Every structure is written in C-alpha cells, then in structure tokens.
Amino acid sequence: MEQAADKMPFVNGVKSMKCRKMICLFIISILFFGGLDLCAGVVNANDSHEFKEGDSLVNLLKDGDGKERIYKFTPGNKITATNTKLRLFINASEIDSSEYTVDYESYAITMRKAPDRGAEVSIKYLISPTFEWEEGKSGVAQIGNALSNGDGSTRVFKLTTNYSINSSKNVSLYIDGIKISASEFTFNYENNTVTILEKRRAPSAKSKIYFYFPKSAIIGTQSSSGETTANHPSTNNPPANSSSGGVVDSSPIKAVEPQFQVPSGASFPGNITIKSDGTFTANMNVTTMQPTYTSYLMVRNANGKVVRRIEINANNPSPFSLSKLGLPSGGYYFYLKTVNQSGSLAASIPQFVPINNEHPNIQVFIGGQKQAYEQPPVNLSGSVLVPLRAIFESLGAKVEWESSSQTVTATREGRTILLTIGSNIAYVNGAPITLNVAPQLINGNTMVPVRFVSEALGGIVKWDETSKSVVVFQNQPSIPTSAESEQAPIEEVVQVQSEPSSSSPILGKISKGITDSSDIVFVIDVTASMGGVIDYVKETVKSFADSVPSGSNFAIVAYRDINYVDLDNRDLEFFQFTNDKDLLKANLDTLVASGGGDLDESGLEAIHMAVNKLSESTNSKRIIFITDAPVHDKGTSQGMAGFFLEQIITELQTNNVIFDAIAPNSGLGYEQIIQLVEGNKGSLYDINDATTMLLN
User: Fold this and answer.
1) How far is residue 200 from each of residues 187, 211, 343, 526, measured CA to CA in Å?
2) Beta bridge partners of 230
3) 461 in helix, strand or coil?
C-alpha cells in the first residue's frame, strides 16, 4: 500500500500530462488538418505532430518508457546544425544540451538518461528562412512560410515553398509578429514574390517576416526539379517536408485578377520630358497599364508637400504648359505614379524642376531651395556670379576674408578654396584653376562664379535654360513617393480645364439645385484609386456647405470595396450629422484613400446605411454618392454583395431621398449608378472632372 501511495502522484501527473497532450493533439488536428475525414475513416498523418509556438516549431515525440534513450524525429523542414537551433524538452522543462546529442543526418536524438515512463518528450527549433508549417488562422487552414530576414532596405522577398499555388487572395504578412495591412504589400503567385509597398517602411535589419497563404490555393507540390505535381481529390499525400498529412483543399479556385506588376524607380514605364518652350509631356508605356490602373503626375514643393496631383491618360501624351499649373516661383519635384484599386502603387524617380515667373532674373537653387540674395545673381560672359559669403555658407563652408589682399579662403570637409578679387586664378587645395570670369565687386558686393565654387566643394551644377536657373545639388535628393508621404494637406489645389472654372464646379452645380434646408449625406468610396477625388471633395466641400440654405446638416458614410477583415481600414464608417462646417471638413480630412480592391462588396451597403440615417430627417433628404467603381449589384456579383440594385432604388424612393452621383460616365459603373440617379430625381457628374487636376 505504501508503494502504491508513493506512485500515485506520479501516475496522476502522467494522467494530467496525457490529458493536456490529447487536448493539444485534438486542437492541432482541428486547426491544422481540417478535422477528421469521417467518411473515409482514415486520418493520414506522420508519426510526429508539429506546430508553431512563437518563432519556433515544436515537434511532439513519443512518450518516454524509462528505457529508450534514442528518439527519432521527423521535422517538417530540412534542419541542420547550422540553419537552426534544436532544443530538447521533457515534461515541458528544457534539458541542458550537455545531456543529449543530435544526429541531423538521421534525425535522431540520443539522451544520456532515458526519459521516465510516460514523460512527454518534445523538441523545439527556431524558424529560419524558407521553413514552412501549417497553422490555423481565423478558422482557416493556412501554410506559413518564413521569408528572408529584413535588412532595412529590401522590399521584394522570394517565397521558397514546396507548394504550387494559383491565387493571391486571402494571403497575409506578419513582420515581427505584427500583421501588415493588405494595402501595404502585394503577392505575385506566378513568380512567388512578396513586395512591401513604398507606403510602408522597408523591414528593419533582422526583422522576422512570415507569409501565409490558404491551403485552398494549393494546386500541387513542387518536385526537386521545380516541376509541379497536381493535387487530385483522391490524393491526400503531403509535400516532402510537410509535418502533417492534411488533405489539400482541391475545391475550385476563383479567377484572380492580374497582379499589379508596375515597377518603381528607374524601371517605371514612363517619363516626364520638359522642353525649353515651357511645356512638358508625361509619357507612359500603355502596354503596362491595366483598365483598373490610374496614373498621375505628382508635384511636390521644395519642402516635400504635394501641391499638384494631375490625372493623366496613358493613351494621350500631349504636351502641357508649365505655366498652366499656376505654380509660384520655386523648386519642385515632378514624378509619375500609378495605383490600382487595392492600393498598390509604383512611382518614377522624382526629378527637380525649377519654376521662374520673374524672367529675366536669374534664380539659384541649392539642394532644391531657392536662394535669396541682397545682390541678385548676374551673368557675365556666360558665367553666373553670386554673393561670395551667401554661396559659401549655403554650401556649408567656413569663410575667411582678408581685406588687405582682397582674398577669400573657404574650407569644407578637407577642401580649401582660395579666391582673389580681380584674379582669374583660383586655388583648390593648393592647385591652380583658371576661371572664365574673375571674382569682382558689384554694387559693393563680392561676387564669385557659382559653378566653380559649387563644383570645388563637391556639388553638381546644372543650368536650366527654361527657367534661367542655376541648380546645385551636393547630394542626390531623396524624395518620398509613398502614399503616407502624400497625406499632408495639398497646397493651392486648382482645377485645370480647357477654360477657367470655379473651384467647385460639380458641387457648385449640385448646390444650386438645393433650395430648402436639407440633410445631406456624402457617401464616399475611399479605396486607393480615389485619392484625387477625395482631395477634390476636401478642398471644395466647405464652399459647398456655405452655399446651401441655412439649417442644413451634413454627414459622411465612407466605405471600401473589400471582402476581407482589415484592421487598419474600416470597410464602412459613419460620421454623425453636423451643421458645423469646420467639423464637416475635419471629418473629411480623416479620410485617406487606401486598401480595398474593388472586390465583391458593394457601395449599395453604404447607400443603405445612409438611407437609414436619413429616415428620421424632417428636412429634405439628399445623398451625394462619389465612386469610381460599380456598386456590385447582388444579382450580378458574388461574395458579400448584400443588396439588389432594385432594393436600394425602392428604399430611396420610399424615403424621398434625392440621389446625386459623381461617378463613371461609361461602363458597368455608369449602367448601375445611372439607375439610382434617374430613379431618384438626381444628376450624374463625370468623376473624371472631379480629380484634383485633369490634363486635357
């Protein structure tokens, strides 16, 4: 009896561990393998069970028997002593590495002492790039894959997988354990590349990057030669390095839209050509553009703020006048940008463009900033001279003036320049240089040749004939082109058309038709392609609100066309009614065009919400609907489209809501939205006239 009593705690402990292990294995089976195939009566699995725990994979081995010291294990990945660190656990306690040895060739671990009978034995190894595992996320069986670690600059990562997949839908990306917004990366399943978009900072050094794709996207496994072995409904075999024998979902895969593959930087398929007559042409490679892409000419001022966003037509590279941009004199950065509905974007390298509205005065730009001199620059025999002290100090040089010899000495980063008034011989670190024009006094100011001074201090100097400007850069300018960098308020936004127009032509026309106090809801599509339109509304809505009868109230419904959960971007959001025009503008300012993909979710849900909010209004009721996409009628769209077009038309009519729209004037979007407009006493305006600027 005493012996039996002594054994009871151990037996109970084993039972407890066994219970926990059975629960763990059951959960793993449900999450990883999709549950038991009761119809077949068979579960195909390896002898080991492997699951992810933090940044490691855990492999459950057979229980101890008090005798066996050598344990075989079957990892889900090819592991070696150099690509990972393997650790041994018995009853959840880590064993000192001196107590066992690992044979990575035969995948066997030999312990100095055999584990007790019933002891739980497991190994854990760190996840390294290319390792794969199965994991249940949001109730969906997915394949996890470790991409290469970040290095602070790399944005394109290669997915090395044992599977062949045919879809980019429902994929997810985690960087250091944080889920990345779907609008901040793209996945190309054809060449297995994951691209971090410029709207997000490149993963920092040593960042761990995990990519997930659903098992339903798998169409086969990769052989060692790179060939694909197709999966069939009757084939339940896992890939060679898979830790599970889960059945691959062979259900039909929905067609996937072509991936956004426009390259950024120097490879961007377009360029801006600025001519000496003051015109420029935005040239785009039409073959790269898809119908759902939108392209813009972006203009930033010297401080990096967006001051113009001009929608351009890739099929119409006609010249346009710089003067029509209405930019004040100064330095600007021009670049081309292309975006798609899901927020993917690509941009060309920004180029510096000086604007001079003060001809024939000469301008000088250093590092993009326009210089202001008490004595204006002068042109002598083809050389531009500028005030001595101002140019040296703006280039970061220390200046010393010797009045007796009329000599100036400037030093910067190991370079010494010596100039003498009236002498065309200068010295750089003691070496003589002959100048085209000697330094001289003009109106009491010591003037020196800007090209010589700038180049002697390591700068790059260019003469811009169009603007009569000297442009100096000591370092290559770094101008951000990401979506986040454009969220600063757009300055001096104007509407450029063939003829001058008011600042709010569309909303101005709508306001003229409002003769009674009204409750008005702006229903705005805020997917990524709507950036220019949202900016247009932000800039013009306050004057619109001022022009409607007093007693009117305003609300906003913002929506994105997405059919997946995106914590960073709400798919439907309501801003309460207000008659405070500043609050209305502030609410609009919070809207950022991002996310979405013009997928199977509908603008009709947003209109339905707006009608409900208007149902108790005593004022006249009006909706102003703004979108560049169809509304996804439930009768023609799959997925999450929840309403028929006829239902919404009836709702609008029942509640006496006037419906205006700023929307496409052709295609499916027009065919659907015109029914909403004509059925509810409203007007439709072409969304192409509502961008910040439009090249004609």
Assistant:
1) 15, 16, 12, 19
2) 220
3) strand
Taking the complete model, does pTM exceed 0.85, yes or no? no
Closest CA to 607 of 660, 678, 567, 569: 660
Taking a C-beta distance cutoff of 8 angstroms, is the pair 479, 351 a contact?
Answer: no
Instruction: Specify burial of residue 21 (Cβ count, 10 A radius: 0-12, 13-18, 19+).
Output: middle
Length of the chain counted residue by residue = 696
Kindly report, residue by residue over 365-387, the tens digit of the pLDDT.
999 999 999 899 999 888 999 99
CB burial of residue 127 (10 Å; 0-12, 13-18, 19+): buried
- Specify the pLDDT at position 470: 93
Residue 673, pLDDT > 70, answer: yes
Per the CB < 8 A criterion, the answer to whether 109 and 123 are in contact is: yes
Non-local (6+) Cβ contacts of 162 within 8 A are 132, 221, 222, 239, 240, 241, 242
Residue type (1 letter), 502: S
Query: What is the rounded CA–CA span in Å between residue 141 and residue 242?
Result: 14
Percent of the chain with pLDDT over 70: 77
Question: Of 636, 646, 543, nearest to 588 (Cα)?
Answer: 543
Please report which confidence band the pLDDT of residue 495 belongs to, taking 50, 70 and 90 as the band edges: very low
* Closest by Cα among 326, 330, 354 to 496: 326
The answer for residues whose C-beta is within 8 angstroms of residue 374's C-beta and 6 or more apart is 387, 390, 445
Looking at per-residue confidence, does 107 or 542 come out higher? 107
Q: In this predicted model, what pLDDT tens digit does every residue of 170-208 receive, in sequence order?
A: 899 999 888 888 888 999 988 899 999 888 888 988 889
CA 447 – CA 445 distance, rounded (Å): 6
Report, as an integer, the average pLDDT of 647-676. 92
Q: Which residues contact 297 (CB under 8 A, 6 or more apart)?
A: 272, 282, 308, 309, 310, 312, 334, 335, 336, 337, 695
At 444, list the tokens. 């009491």
- Pairing between β-strand 185-188 and β-strand 193-196 as defined by DSSP bridges: antiparallel
Helix 645-654 / helix 667-678 crossing angle, nearest 10 deg:
30
Tell me what pLDDT residue 213 has.
93
pLDDT at position 501 over 60: no
Share of the chain above pLDDT 90, in %: 36
At residue 51, the pLDDT reads 85
User: What Å distances lie between residue 281 and 271, 334, 339, 467, CA to CA?
Assistant: 8, 12, 20, 17
**Contact (Cβ atoms closer than 8 angstroms) between residue 616 and residue 555:** no
The C-alpha atoms of residue 377 and residue 468 are separated, in whole angstroms, by 11
Residue 392 CA to residue 231 CA, distance in Å, equals: 71
Give the gyration radius of the chain's Cα atoms.
Answer: 34
HSE-CB at 274 with a 13 A cutoff on CA atoms is: 17
* Pairwise CA distance, residues 182 & 170, whole Å: 9
CA 264 from centre of chain: 12
CA 136 to chain CA centroid, nearest Å = 26
